[in-house]
Fold this sequence. Notes:
Radius of gyration: 18 Å
CATH architecture: Alpha-Beta Barrel
Helix content: 25-40%
CATH class: Alpha Beta
Order of helices and strands: EEEHEHEHEHEHEHEHEHH
Distance between the termini: 41 Å
Strand order of the largest sheet: 3-4-5-6-7-8-9-10
Mean pLDDT: 93
Number of strands: 10
Amino acid sequence: MSVFTDPLRPVEVVPPRMPSAPSVPLPEDACDAHSHVFGPYQDFPFATPSNYPPPLAPSTSYFTMLDTIGAKRGVLVQPAPYGTNNEALVAALKAGAGRIRGVAVAQQDATDDELQHLNSNGVCALRFNEMPSPQTGKPFAGSVGLEVALSLASRMKALDWHAQVWARSADVPAITEKLQRAGLSVVFEHMACFDPSLGASHHDFQNILALLREGRIGVKLALCRVSKRAPHYEDLRPFHDLMVEANAKQLVWSSDWPYVRMGDSAPDVGNLLDTFHDWVDDASLRRTILVDNPARIYRFDA
């Protein structure tokens, strides 16, 4: 099957890797705080050509994934090829009937009615991308940068939305400062994207820990974009431990399913949860990260 997001560039669709069940059942109301939906493409074509083979991962597959791992809740994040067309995201939120929340993408010209429509359907944050494409060094097509967050800040605050940011670890302190001056709280994707080869004493990672301790940032514990040592990502264990020790109340667990641009190295979500269970051996801490924090940050209890 091909997706014709651009009439001159058919893109081959790839199936997502579906998970196994984790070895230990998740606590009640556990949440996967970062996943994506793609398609069905006849209903939800891309807004911009994709720079990666898109998975066919509609909401039905997403809910099957959540059911298999035993997660009662989830957070869907708008992927870049959909740009500011959040229709696939909103359709999935409606299908979830309160089970999931959304992180959308919007430009500064979004109307109040458009933002309210997203809010009423379960969106509670906007995504901003400061991570350059590894292929071009430029922003990913369809992504929206931090300057838009600053222009939308007052309207985001009125809706009680936060900013979700994908950025290089070196940029985390400056981004945090800008957003806080604008009155926005921030959650960083993919463990704030530090380089594990530099070691835990490197100033970029130490800055992340300091911001966590102060409660100034939230961080998504998604392993697969930081380390290439699948399936257990042993090189990330000391960093993960330090983040949990710094401030477990500012962390949420995330799979990043369905793993775009990963091909055969895409992890199994069930295995990722087993790793999390092994690394966080305190049941109350696991519940804090899997249940309590996402309930607060994504307003599940509102």
